[in-house]
Amino acid sequence: MFDRDRIDEVLQTLGKNKLRTALTSFGVFWGIFMLIVMLGSGQGLRNGVTRSFGGNATNAVYMWTQSTTKPYKGLPRGRSFNFLEDDIKAIKDNVPELDVLAPSAQLGGYRGENNVSRGTKTGPFSVRGDFPDNRFIQIFKITSGRYLNELDIKEKRKVCVIGQRVQEILFTKDEDPIGQFIQVNGTYFKVIGAITVEKAGDEAEEKMQTIYIPFSTFQQAFNWGGKIGWFSLTAKPQYAASLVEEKVKKVLAQRHRIAPDDAGAIGSWNSEKEFSKIQGLFSGISALVWVVGIGTLMAGVIGVSNIMLIIVRERTREIGVRRALGATPASIFTQVITESVILTSFAGYFGLIAGVFLMEGINAAIEGQDTGMFYQPGVHLDIALKALGILIVCGALAGIIPARKAVSISPVEALRWE
Known about the structure:
elongated
């Protein structure tokens, strides 16, 4: 189908009317260009939103206490309660679907800040008591030192891990924080690690300004007793986070004498549900982009089909001569299809390249900048190849009607054509 002589003949035919060929090609060029730009922009939005989850496990559930909303077993509504250290074992024993359980506590409550000092330098930072497993839920990068471990918990060591912002304020640029001491509410803690978060947004900023100390040390140093601020947990890969959420709530409700139908006593946030909603939204956006993009591409392909009909009409006498000299209908049909595929493929290829270059240019321009919900726009190779494949198929389809028209021409009538 694509032998050298045939391609030369196709190029000569298309080159006879350069302006018409260029304008027809532009329709296809613009269709594939817009498809690539829309797909690349959609990917940028998807990356931006997904990046906002980058500092947390996407199947995590967070639980905290609230006031009861219903009376139960002689206890009044509006009762306050706290999660307790004994709840940890009860949850692990009764919820086999649980993967990671990380109790936490924070001075001053959620988003509470405390003055932390080192020498003459001070700053308002969050101070959290955590378990080592927290690193599997609150995902971050350790820039120096290490994170908390089980010995820190068991021996109630006065050590801490600091966020990047804490390091910037309490230490000089070239100073190594590892092994240094900082003061929190009159208690000194040795810095054993420093972390950063590879994500954007308010939550990332909060983690950068947080100091993490062993949970057991936190309880002892700040008189928390057996209280727990909140639970962070994840489900095993084969189970839904919502199933674990439901079972853990049931265990906690029984232990703290909460009515089974009291939905307001234990607050929770399921990141898996939110992540699934967002993924579903972007799947819908992607499908819409493909529909709109292919529609735009089809407009260009229809133009190619119309031009091929005109070309066939102009070459009626030539086709008649070829038929009279023994050319088969299949060779005529193939010739027209080849012209259509080459025209759409060349135009589409340049549209594809232009779209990819534009996305790469935008990506380079915004690299290193905080663009919020738009991050690393671009098109994956498999998507580009799919678009090119669709283009070639469309080119073949565009040539079918003109090709059938060419084959239907009677050699005798064609020789009479003026």
